[in-house]
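From the pipeline queue, job 12 of 40. The input is one protein chain; the requested action is below.

Action: predict structure.
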Amino acid sequence: MNVQQLEETARALFAHDKGLLAMDESTGTCNKRFEKLGIPQTFEARRAYRELLVTSPGLSESIGGAILCDETIRQQKSDGTPFIKVLIEAGIVPGIKVDAGAKELAGHPSEKVTEGLDGLRDRLHEYFQMGARFAKWRAMIAIGDGLPSWGCIEANAHALARYAALCQQAGLVPVVEPEVIMDGGHTLQQCRVVTDEVLRTVFSELFAQRVALEGMILKPNMVLSGTACASQPTLDEVADATVNCFLRAVPAAVPAIAFLSGGQSAELASAHLNAMNMRFKSRLPWVLAFSFARAIQQPALEIWKGHEANILAAQQALVHRARCNQAARRGEYSAEMEKR
């Protein structure tokens, strides 16, 4: 394991206030989003949409890395150029989602554990040879009546740590994603308590598996009230709850925290990230960045709708959202930026 190389990759992903574009949706998830907009749910439509994303002019100015899925990393532009080559030539580091999805956790009704460790060593080696330099694994933790259980937290934390150790052995920076999901009526305080417990357990497991914290990225949820909660916090309340939680649970050796959007609107995700950096940036041991999927892609997808004539406008919307989040990293985002 070359820790220095892992550190250099981790730093490159977030240099110049950049962040990550998560375009690693599974085929099923991608098809569902297409169906809502009347886009054909075909291999070629998915390929065309991903070509739109990776060829967006100026994307590399605010995006340092792109997370792909297995289908995407093997796809090509219409002229035969592999997507992974397009990204590398643009200065965007290719990454790959390697988990096999969340499955029902035996003995724990309403809870899930992420699978995919079987055969992972060989898959990581293949992806490294293809040009990927970082990977991602997502764990889902739900809040509810009696949830999450300790067994669910522990099972997911252990899997995340095993995955991270295998990544580093293969030369890939692991993006560790323990997501406390927004669904439900839980309060901001309940989310903070659960997020704290999840993070502490994850880092305990990472230590046990001898993962080099300097060569990994944390991709967590923000501390938010549930979507069905009657009391929704202000931007500053979310910033305070999130950063104070992380200061107590995330070691300073971690180079970056790249938040997931978790179903927030594009504008709200940017505003929350901006508030954190405005209030805390000068006092933090790690950078606060973004690793958004829908919160960057959705406006572009709604413009494109499968029509070639809409590609340029869709690409402009994609790059605009990426730039808004780059501004949020600097604490310089404002609603005025949306009036483009």
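Job complete. The two ends are 46 Å apart (CA to CA).
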